[in-house]
Task: structure prediction
Amino acid sequence: MKLLRSGWRATPLVLHSMTELSKSQRWVERDRATVWHPYTQAATEPDPLAIESASGATLTLTSGETLIDGISSWWATLHGHGEPRLVEAARRQMERLDHVLFAGATHEPAIELAESLLAVVPPGLARCFYSDDGSTAVEVALKMAIQAHLQNGHPERRVFVALDGGYHGDTFGAMAVGDPDPFFVPFAPMLFEVRRVPATSAAITAAVEELGPRAAGVIMEPRLQGAAGMRVHGAEVVQAARAACDAHGLYLIADEVMTGFGRTGDLFSCTGANVTPDLLCLAKGLTGGMFPLSATLATEDIYRAFWSEERARALFHGHTFTGNPVGCAMAVESLKLTIDRDVPGRLDAIGKRIFDRVAAHDSAGTLHRLRQIGGMVAFDLEASSAGYLANRGQALRKVAQENGVLLRPLGDVVYALPPACTSDAQADSIADAMLAMAAAAE
Result:
């Protein structure tokens, strides 16, 4: 017997010979000895799924079993795993230019991606700043907004209005504008002031007016709040935020890290609301979910607030892999695919099929607030006192896996958000798995 360092439990583990263990078991033992997983309570979490490969909407485990990826691997996989055109775009670019610093240098993939994005986002956005993921895209937007106000002569504008339940990432600025409960409570004393309000037109308007000259802007996930439990609000809420910002000279930040590239049935969720934000945050589906890259798009007015002979007025923000050529090349190809294949329409059709099948099997109306927007379908279970931290989430994930689907409920919310390559048969299987989860929760 030998002590094996374990992320799950500090107890002696018997080291079996490699021939005694399956590949899955070997991976799990090695994982437990070395890996720290995100959003995971290691002491109570079951063994992780050992994923061998993926193709389209299908994940293949080391055991040979398959699962339908019903949540697009945390809302990122847009076209499907291993999309050949994206793989080829990465290969071509890797052979030509793998990486170069983006301070004082440029390259065609970054230029082409900026041009391509600015041609399809809501009109009025004019500049593209690259970073690495959704959280940093939001972090950049917050810094742009605060520094632009400062350099425009309004240093008092430092308080953002955000939505209850909002989630914008795990870096400190993103945590501040997110809802601390339940994710960020330990860090609350270190986060800057934010005014949180319900996702209603009246609440947003009132908060902006009450803050007066202290208000810096409004940040929101337009029309669909993801981690809050797939909460849907109408286009009028986004329009009210735009109107309030216009009336008071503030910035509207649209976090479309999850909603962008067709997830809500429009290419961008702001487009569906006929709103142009001042700052637009993109990630996840930007590269089809196959490479870490994000972008923060800004208006020319914001960009000009930093234009100066004084170097100290520049935006001092950057990442080692900002504007990585491989990621940019993949993103260019992903955007072409999104338009060529009408991904927004395809996702909407998938969402409607799942919704209709779930609704048809819920003739008694036992599922609470069954809803669909674009490719997202969700319903609420009877609320538990633990909310997001409810232990039944593990059991429900197991039910979904037993039905051949990877789903992860958000507390008491069962939802699906599959990739655009999902077939009709796979969509039906996702719906059936959701119904099985609801039955198991009764």
The chain has three domains: 1-38, 49-79+342-441, 84-340. Residues 134-151 form the longest helix (18 residues). Residues 84-340 form a domain with the Aspartate Aminotransferase; domain 2 fold (CATH 3.40.640.10). Confidence is low (pLDDT under 50) at residues 1-16.
